[in-house]
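Amino Acid Chain and Its Fold in Token Form
===========================================
What this section holds: a protein sequence and its matching fold, both as plain text.
Structure line: whole-number tokens from a learned vocabulary of local backbone shapes, matched to residues.
Purpose: to set a sequence beside its fold so the mapping can be learned.
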Amino acid sequence: MSALGRVRVRPVSHIGREAEPDKPTLRREFIAVRNRLTADDVRESAGELAARALELPELAHARTVAAYVSVGSEPGTLALLDALHARGVRVLLPALLPDNDLDWGSYAGEGSLARVQHGGKMALFEPTGTRLGPRAVTEADVVLLPGLAVDARGMRLGRGGGSYDRVLARLERADARPALVVLLYDAEVVERVPAEAHDRPVQAAVTPSAVHRFRDGG
């Protein structure tokens, strides 16, 4: 069994009753499990993830897809980005701004990326071309979201930086309605994660072995 097959998502309280963990606790758990993955685990699952994602009818018909470049032990996205680019899809990738909002640029292959260190945060791979502005995401037919988990309602657990909360709020203000899809490992589709009033459900989650659809996300 892989490390991700052993993730715990509903800790038991000190009085023996199952307690719903808070977001920081869950984030630490999922990140700890991801950090135990080997490079081979990540590489193998990336190809499987791309194959599953490319089965999505939303991606088959998309002209513009907003995505991201995975880093570290995140589910790998480069194979998927390259496949979309080869199809002629316009792929938008984020560039982190000082206030944690996201600007966007176009993907033109792995050579169009640069490694950018943002202070004490993790280094990210960002597009090197012309910046298109934060509103460029409103042109996307599909938005591929990073995350740490998703529950049966389609509620996504992010890393807590708030960047994608801003993206989702911007889409809502613009009355843009792209398909929202989170990319995860298999064991990160769970029964329930905590949700707040500003959280928005996704329509689907793609893992290396399956596509999961959520009624509340549509």
Summary: The chain has a mean pLDDT of 88. The longest helix spans residues 39-53. The CA atoms of residues 3 and 147 lie 18 Å apart.
